[in-house]
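pls ignore typos typing on phone
magnesium ion + seq
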Amino acid sequence: MLLNERSKVLIVDDERRNLIILTELLRDSHEVTVAKCGKQALEKANKLLPDLILLDIIMPDMNGFEVLTQLKKNKTTNAIPVIFITGLNAPDEERKGLTLGAQDYIYKPFSADVVKARVATQLKIIEQAKQLQQAKLKEKMASLGTLTAGVAHEINNPVNFAHVSADNLTADVTDLQHFIFDLAGDSLDQEVRDEFDSKFNQLFFHIKTIKEGTSRIKDLVEDLWSITLHDNPDKTDINIVQMLQSALAMTNTNLADVATFSTQFDELPTFYGYPGKLNQVFINVLLNACEAVHKKHLTHSDAPAGVISVHTRFSSGFIEIAIQDNGCGMNETSQQKIFEPFYTTKEVGDGTGLGMSMAFAIVEEQGGTIKVKSTLDKCSLITIYLPVTT
Ligand SMILES: Nc1ncnc2c1ncn2[C@@H]1O[C@H](COP(=O)(O)OP(=O)(O)OP(=O)(O)O)[C@@H](O)[C@H]1O
Ligand SMILES: [Mg+2]
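k done
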């Protein structure tokens, strides 16, 4: 289900007959759900997050316009496209629907071909918009990658000098300390000795701080290198399921009480790629999922128990790895920026915001794609597609 690519269509109509006809028309190529009234439509839209809603206008209690207004007000459902299905053939009504944000109209009595064609067109527009977004992201990442590589390279040398010099400084100050105490000999007054000790301790403390700082910069430069494309000679055949299992074991020990893991591993062909880097991708995504569940529990004490599910399958020449969590989810901005280097919603100092940009670069470098789908306060799904060439 998680990896099912069939689009989800919600049909809303108070007439049973219409629901049956439309379901029959669409169910071969889509996953169809029905709602008999406005209230039910809002509940199901919120829960199922359909890709498209076919909405009747004239219904008792809550009409189609009111349903659309509510859908648009709710940040979980406001991006779901809506096609009105109506017996009304009045331009005013059509204008009202379009102003409220409907995508299209289908008039009753409808012809099977028109319904199918309009639904297919809307779904195609959505798919194209997603592809365009992915292409833009790739372009952006490519230029950011070049910039990042340049910056990483420029920082690498000076930070290494500073790190090595801090090491040398420790040795030099230790020598100086011994030299002074040897020179003073045993007759040195205890008070003066204590004064020297305290001065030297302060010096060692400052050198240690410099070394901690340069170590952090060195780690950061190493991470930056991972998000830039460069040749790596250690490609090998990888058993993805085994790799996921070890990544899960690692993540599990870190954050065992946050969430339970549920897995479903279909048999997969081996993937020829970079094992170290790919392992890093899985760990980054799993850690984010754990953090998202933890964050949700901090803000919603009544939230359901955390579950992180990991599914794999092989389809159309691609290994698909879907990692889903029921954590805090992401708003639109986060979903758009998640793969950008340094984008983070964590407090300053808590995270670098490089985890997902590294994942993006590593997956792309190996010919794959990584996608995000999320609903704020509900769930996030990260899907990784890796090509298997035979
Ligand atoms: N599963 C998820 N659920 C909710 N938000 C997520 C999830 N994964 C990523 N994010 C969002 O994307 C942002 C960027 O993620 P990324 O892994 O790149 O950096 P980070 O986790 O903030 O920092 P770091 O990985 O360096 O510790 C996160 O700060 C968070 O807002
Ligand atoms: Mg992260």
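Residues 112-184 form the longest helix (73 residues). DSSP finds ten helices and twelve strands in the chain. more later
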